Amino acid sequence: MVQTTTDDTATSARPTGVRVAVVDDHESVRLGLKAACIEAGFDFVLAAASVQEFVDTLAGRECDVVVLDLSLGDGSTVTENVKRVQATGSAVLIHSIADRVASVREALAAGAAGVIPKSSATKTVMAAVATVARGDVLNNLEWATAIDADRDFSKAQLGRREREILHLYASGLPLKLAAEQLGIGYSTAREYLDRIRVKYVEVGRPAPTKVDLLRRAVEDGILPGLDPDGGDAR
Description:
By secondary structure, this protein is α/β, with parallel strands linked by helices.
């Protein structure tokens, strides 16, 4: 199941050896999250005031999760920041005051793994870091609010058969078995899947891999929430 970030999950087992960095233009936030990460047992990599500083300081080292402020004061855009962090091989957890719904939606569309409010208890933020580090979809109120507040986010306009294929395929079935279950040929199922991907690209929510399709299915309510155990679509 999708891990929901609540105080109950904050005490769940955290993966060991998780490398975490923080990008926030407020020094007090950087220092607080650094201390919390170290106390939680994560391997703290670095803290930076901007994505540019993060990239420069990282200098080729590896990082698993970057806790990223939604709005930095250097004129950078949300999409630019998320994409640049992802380019280093790190997953992105947005740490936000969560009142800028359009910006939260933009971050999720750019590929951020989830959103956690700055008002959350420290142990809740650390639980969210652990969830993202495991590769799980962070499905919480902030994510749902960002999606529900903007109808355009869900306007991929999938047809009934497309939704059925997406439901089965993103749930973990190989495409051939999904096709058999729906009583259609593999080539037809492949066409539906290609059409689904095109539609998501058209609304600015590309889904090139099976994990991405799972995320879109969760975001759009086609699936209630599953661990993304897929990999690239075959």
